[in-house]
Amino acid sequence: FLISYIDASNNLRIDTVNQNGGWGHKLKTGPAGSVTSIGYYKDTTVCAFEYYVKPDTLICAYEISYNGGRTWSLGAVDNTSVMHELPAVSLEKGQGMAIIYRYHAVNPEGRIITRQYKGPGLWTTPVKFADYTPMNVPMAITAMGNGKWGIAYVGADQPQVAYFAAFVGSIVSVEQPISEIPQTITLEQNFPN
Fold first, then answer.
1. Which of 23, 30, 36, 70 sits CB 3.0–4.6 Å from 11 for a disulfide?
2. CB within 8 A of 21, min separation 6: which ones?
3. Global pTM?
4. What region, left, alpha or beta, does residue 153 occupy, with left being phi > 0 and alpha being psi -120 to 50 degrees?
5. 175 confidence band (pLDDT: 50, 70, 90)
């Protein structure tokens, strides 16, 4: 059981429950923004989070461990000179791992990167997954099987509409509005990993 959070000193923390039922600290790094997302399978853990590379430049970074959290490697999901935020991560053995985030180009856009489960390996080049500008609120992603990722996000245009996008490889195969805007969006896996 792992949990990631931003502490009162604006540091990313990754903690776990140890064999005695108490909390054990796996990682502390910063300075971090306010959003973090974690996924794991067996001994591989990926934690995506907002990270300040400069006092005024927020990006999405990730910490990855292939040995149950004994050692970690820090990386950035995209160009570190352009702001990006609101990361969400999904990790599933048969499908690999994915991180989605909001990238601030001329117009903000939703982007995704993916890679195989077992590393080391390279992340794919970032790909735009949304036809609509994602609102400045957390998004959600889950592995749907057969190489497909399900993404839920709220569009920034008025009226605000929640969207579902199915992403396969480098193609957004389905993007449709969700009929009602829920108070929260949570995606849960529908098969064990």
1. 30
2. none
3. 0.86
4. beta
5. low
